[in-house]
Write a structure and sequence with these properties.
The protein is mainly alpha-helical. Helix content is about 75%, strand content about 0%.
C-alpha cells in the first residue's frame, strides 16, 4: 500500500519520512475536498465519497484507509475546522488591531457554524458515542476569544466587563436563531450589532 509507514532501520536508508509526507498530503487533500463538498451540499448525506476522492486526486481505497467510515471523515473535517478556527485568533491579533481581529474571527466562526449545520446529524452521532465533547469545543472557543477581548480592553476599543463566554453565548444564539432560515446578510447584520455591543 502506498501509505504504509515503514519502521526506522539503523543505516538510515528507510523511506519512512517521504511516505509519511505522502500519506499526510493525501489526508489533507481529502479533508480539503470534503470541506468543498460540504460547502455546497445541504447535508453530508448528499455528499459523494467517490466524488471527494476524485476531487482530492486519489482513489476511493485511499480515502477509506484514512477514513474508514463516512462518519470518521466528516468528524475529521469538523475537527480540522475547529483547529483552524481556534488557532487563527492569535494570527489575526498579530496582524490587526484587537477589535478588527475580533470581528474577523467572528466572521470565521460564522463560516464554521454554517459548515457545522451541514454535518449536524454526524456530529450528533459523534457526541452520542462520546467521540465529540461540546463542553471541550466551547472551552476551546472561549480560549481563542479571551486574548482578543483582553487586548481590546487594554487599548480601549472593547469593553472590559465582557467575558469570552458572554461572546460565545451570544454568537451561539445568533447561529441558532438563523439556522432554519440562513440569510448571510441577516447574519452579518446581527454580528455587526454584536460587535457594536462589545465596544465601550
Amino acid at each position: 500500500m502506498a501509505d504504509r509507514v515503514t519502521p526506522d532501520v539503523p543505516d538510515g536508508t528507510a523511506t519512512e519520512r517521504p511516505m509519511r509526507a505522502h500519506a499526510r498530503r493525501n489526508r489533507d487533500e481529502l479533508l480539503a475536498a470534503a470541506r468543498r463538498a460540504l460547502a455546497v451540499a445541504e447535508s453530508d448525506r448528499a455528499v459523494s465519497l467517490e466524488g471527494i476522492a476524485r476531487d482530492a486526486g486519489v482513489g476511493i481505497g485511499t480515502l477509506y484507509r484514512h477514513f474508514p467510515t463516512r462518519q470518521a471523515l466528516f468528524e475529521a473535517v469538523y475537527g480540522s475546522q475547529l483547529d483552524e478556527l481556534t488557532s487563527g485568533a492569535g494570527d489575526l491579533l498579530a496582524t490587526h488591531p484587537p477589535a478588527i481581529a475580533l470581528r474577523e474571527w467572528i466572521g470565521a466562526y460564522a463560516d464554521f457554524a454554517r459548515t457545522k449545520r451541514g454535518v449536524h446529524e454526524t456530529l450528533k452521532a459523534g457526541m452520542a458515542a462520546g467521540r465529540l465533547n461540546p463542553s471541550t469545543t466551547r472551552a476551546r472557543i472561549n480560549t481563542a476569544v479571551e486574548p482578543l477581548l483582553s487586548a481590546g480592553a487594554a487599548d480601549g476599543t472593547l469593553r472590559k466587563d465582557i467575558t469570552a463566554d458572554d461572546v460565545t453565548t451570544m454568537l451561539v444564539g445568533i447561529f441558532l436563531a438563523t439556522a432554519t432560515t440562513p440569510d448571510p446578510e441577516q447574519t452579518t447584520r446581527l454580528l455587526d450589532l454584536l460587535m457594536a455591543a462589545l465596544r465601550p
